[in-house]
Amino acid sequence: ARAFFGLKIRFWAMLLACILCVGVTYGLTVQRERNRIGSEDNYNQAMKYLEIKNVIDEYYVGTVDEEAVSASAFAAMVAGLGDEWSYYMSPSEYSAYKLYSANQYVGMGVSVDKDAATGGLKITGVYDASPADNAGLAVGDIILSINGEDITDMTVGDARSFMDANIGETVKLGIQNSKGDKSEVSVNCSVVYTSPVSYRMLSGSIGYVQILNFDSGAAEAAVKAIETLLGQGALGFVFDVRQNPGGLLSELTTLLDYLLPSGTIFISVDKAGNQTPVESDSVCLDMPMAVLVNEYTYSAAEFFAAALQEYNWADIVGARTTGKSRSQQTIELTDGSAVHISTARYLTPMGVDLAEQGGLIPDQAVAMTATGDAQLNAAVAAVQWNM
Prior knowledge:
Helices cover about 40% and strands about 25% of the residues. It is globular. The model is unreliable at about 1-5 (pLDDT under 50). It is built from 11 helices and 19 strands. The termini are far apart. Helix 8 (about 250-260) packs parallel to helix 9. Strands 3, 4, 5, 6, 7 and 8 form a 6-stranded antiparallel beta sheet that branches. By secondary structure, the chain is α+β, with helices and mostly antiparallel strands.
């Protein structure tokens, strides 16, 4: 009996030890998870997300689209920052984004921005010979629907993904033009590869270089265009960054370094307020220049014009620019999605924040006219004046 009693005690002791072991292991696991997530507040918020998710799974009467629910939650988290330049991208959106950044894109061949008045996508740029260009779409047109589907409640990323789902197909777009007239336009979507730079010689030996964006390859293509035009006898240059949505800092500073003399050409300010200047060497292109800008000139394109203006290296002609002075990093997540988030501020060589200033103010304010390109004509005249 004593032996049996002893066995019984040992059994309960072992059981208690196992329970204690499980408890300790669970406690350590929870602690590790809390440490991995970060602060106590972050942990509690993560638990709240799971709690809401469990409520939906247990009580919601309809069919749950798990991917849509999660994507909406993630997008809302970034949108809650109140920063129009920061956003979440699903895996498919991020794949399309990488193509855009490499100057390869899937879809119509337009750059777009959210239109506050209608909720649609305002076209801010149309690539030459792209499906959109061939269909007659123009800057200022607003896309309201795609194949009959209203997109005014979609984010820019969601709408792009919706468009990109129609690769190789003809897409019907509901369009509102700059006059407010509505129509339906058919666009044959395809994979498009484009150079970010086009150029030609204007009369009077003035080289014209249009830079569509500052994404991958833009600086190399711009330098090649300049040198080709120099070889053809160019005596001055007009750089056109109207409708340019910006791009990579490295592309911007490479081109500015080629054009400007030694000195600070750009300043980046991090979250802690630390300033990092980018310097140019003494090799430069000292010739009469003008830069064309307008209200669709964003970010790196604005700072391109601002640096040339502050060095008195070029006359800036056109309309006041947007005033985007934050730089973003794209952080890829483990599932192939990404967060595009503002991580630094831009300053001009003289330390000006263009957002605080309300955009870059041109030396010559010139409005577009119904006939001809009055802005380009003014830029050409400015270059000729200095030749």
